[in-house]
Design brief:
It contains 13 helices and 25 strands. The chain is an alpha/beta fold and about 575 residues long. The strands form six sheets. The chain has a seven-stranded mixed β-sheet with strand order 10-23-24-25-21-22-11. The longest helix has 16 residues. The chain binds one RNA strand of 75 nucleotides through helix 5, strand 6, helix 7, helix 12 and strand 19.
Length: about 575
RNA sequence: UGGGGCGUCGCCAAGUGGUAAGGCAUCGGCCUUUGGAGCCGACAUUCGCAGGUUCGAAUCCUGCCGCCCCAGCCA
């Protein structure tokens, strides 16, 4: 029994099971992930990738990678490269099945000729505006184009000349002859080809006519022998057209299945909105650690495993939903708790002098690298007379349940000694600048007296040994669960940006961190999970990104104390 | 007011006529040299609403209500 986990059922698997039972595809399951290379992949795509590759694997089938590159004005190779990198990083392999809709341009052209020969497609000379007017509205039927009844020969000739470049951009289209009175607007003689002189990232200038999504997608699926073409809900209305094309062409007929796209609280997921964040300089780029892009999450410190786990947990259904960001955070905490090495880092340093500790003495304290993993071993951390502790771990006048340092109180320094706060040193303005403490030499970690009960344990860094490091503290990009909701007329999602989404601090970290490699994951004890940034920082002076905080019970208590008088 | 979808706990989500899984969140308690982790427990007499069929309905029927998508030569 390799897998004790209950594999979640969903409606897509049910459809596949029915097909397998009826023999519709001979028991074959072949899916595809079809990104348009016009932007970076985000976590919603990750869900789709996990779904498509996951289903293929579960049923012993295959999943293709196919770039849906039918609109050269928006697409480019930078996006192709980033997409491939992200899918690989997530842990999926399309082997030799890397395809492009543009691979099929010639076949698509031949298919179009067949429809023309069959009297099922025609060249239309209506302008864009006219086409819209002829299409009718949601409640009124459309009218037939005056070019609808041209002869097969004339259509064929015109279409050839469209391809040859005899006509200016936008002057003609090839349309499927279906039904201008259909209640489904997609069936009102949809456009198959438009004339567009744009350089394509793969086919160059070979074509001046490009197929539309509807015309290219289903036929591409068919050519590749796809059995289950999984897409998002908004394409449900397109399914009759998808079916119409493959039926008229009498070619392999995949089944299109639609599911609800992923939404997550406190972020946005549309490529258009993400592009705006990038272009308006609100974030650092597509891979800004606050972005829900795969590259952003990677830089933030998310792991492939945590994203796959998240994808499994969110489920697959047709109900539009918004997953609580807390679930994503739970997934990364669970992964990092098991794997991240523990270290000590003080983000907001407050100097502590142990007045009864010898000035020249330095001790090496043994610290466990990961209590969840015995094989992770331990390391030595230097301890000396002058230390840094977290400023928030001291309060002059502590409230109830504050288990940390305060005047006259004792606290344990993790892996070291129990200390007592004897004196608070302030500057002229009354700011606390230093604490004078005494230590109990009998309480060194490992000694019998170390087992004495004390209320709290603090992390610390030896001042003379500390390494300076920039630490980037990230929070949600938006401070509203649903960023699209605005208070005032005329506002958009940018009105809900969280001004505190990035806070940069200068921290004091333990010496072992000076040589930390980019992409390594750490837990800064009592603070959260951090990773070494891949862009900023240099040798000996790493920059850390906060992936996620640790669950913080005290913060909850404290918050409750403040709001309840 | 045309067509296509969707409505099960705060957020997701199983369930497909036999009497409401699970996860996240939340709230208690235990444990703890991370207020972390872990462990134990609590958490929908009810499935948008109203009728009907049935011994029995979240599941079947009828009628309402609410939300989303579609009028790009974008995908």
């Amino acid at each position: 029994m390799a897998n004790m986990e209950t594999v979640q059922s969903n409606f897509i698997k049910q459809i596949i099971n029915e097909h397998n039972a009826s023999g519709r595809y001979g028991g074959r399951v072949h899916t595809r992930f079809p990104p348009e290379p016009n932007g970076y992949l985000h976590i919603g795509h990750a869900k789709s990738i996990c779904l498509n590759f996951g289903i293929a694997e579960e049923y012993g089938g295959k999943c293709n990678l196919r770039f849906d590159d039918t609109n050269p004005v928006k697409e480019n190779v930078e996006y192709v490269d980033s997409i491939k990198e992200d899918i690989r990083w997530l842990g999926f392999d399309w082997e030799d099945r890397e395809f492009y809709a543009s691979d099929y341009f010639e076949t698509l052209y031949e298919y179009a000729v067949k429809l023309i020969r069959d009297g099922k497609a025609y060249v239309c000379e209506l302008t864009g505006e006219e086409i819209r007017a002829y299409r009718g509205t949601l409640t009124e039927t459309g009218r037939n184009s005056p070019y609808r009844d041209r002869s097969v020969e004339e259509n064929f000739d015109l279409f050839q000349r469209m391809r040859a470049g005899d006509y200016p951009d936008g002057s003609r289209t090839l349309r499927a002859k279906i039904d201008m009175a259909s209640p489904n607007l997609n069936m009102r003689d949809p456009i198959m080809y438009r004339i567009l002189r744009a350089h394509h990232h793969r086919t160059g200038d070979a074509w001046c006519i490009y197929p539309t999504y509807d015309w290219a997608h289903g036929q591409s699926d068919s050519i590749e022998g796809i059995t289950h073409s999984i897409c998002t809900l908004e394409f449900e209305d397109h399914r009759p057209l998808y079916d119409w094309y493959v039926t008229q062409l009498e070619i392999h007929h995949p089944r299109q299945i639609e599911f609800a796209r992923l939404n997550i609280t406190c972020t946005v997921m549309s490529k258009r909105k993400l592009l705006r964040l990038v272009q308006e300089g609100i974030v650092d780029g597509w891979d800004d650690p606050r972005m829900p892009t795969i590259s952003g999450l990677r830089r933030r410190g998310y792991t492939p495993g945590s994203l796959r786990d998240f994808s499994d947990r969110v489920g697959v259904a047709k109900k539009e939903s918004t997953i609580d960001m807390a679930l994503l955070e739970h997934c990364i905490r669970e992964d990092l708790n098991a794997h991240a090495l523990r270290v000590m880092a003080v983000l907001d340093p407050l100097k502590v002098v142990i007045t009864n500790y010898p000035a020249s003495e330095i001790e090496e304290m043994e610290a466990v690298n990961n209590p969840e993993d015995a094989t992770a071993g331990s390391r030595a951390v230097p301890f000396s007379r002058e230390l840094y502790i977290e400023r928030e771990d001291f309060m002059e006048d502590p409230p109830k349940k504050f288990f940390r340092l305060a005047p006259g109180r004792e606290v344990r320094l993790r892996y070291a000694y129990i200390i007592r706060c004897e004196e608070v040193i302030k500057d002229a303005e009354g700011n606390i600048v230093e604490l004078h403490c005494t230590y109990d030499s009998e309480t060194r970690s490992g000694l019998p007296q170390a087992n004495r009960k004390v209320k709290g344990t603090l992390h610390w860094v030896s001042a003379p040994h500390a390494v300076d490091a920039e630490v980037r503290l990230y929070e949600q990009l938006f401070d509203r669960e649903h960023p699209e909701t605005t208070d005032e007329e005329g506002q958009d999602f940018l009105a809900n940006l969280n001004p505190a989404s990035l806070q940069i601090v200068q921290a004091k970290v333990e010496p072992s961190l000076a040589s930390a490699m980019a992409g390594t994951h750490f837990q800064f004890e009592r603070k959260g999970y951090f990773t070494v940034d891949s862009r900023y920082g240099k040798k000996g002076a790493p920059v850390f990104n906060r992936t996620v905080t640790l669950r913080d019970t005290w913060a909850k208590i404290h918050k409750g104390q403040k709001t309840t008088p």
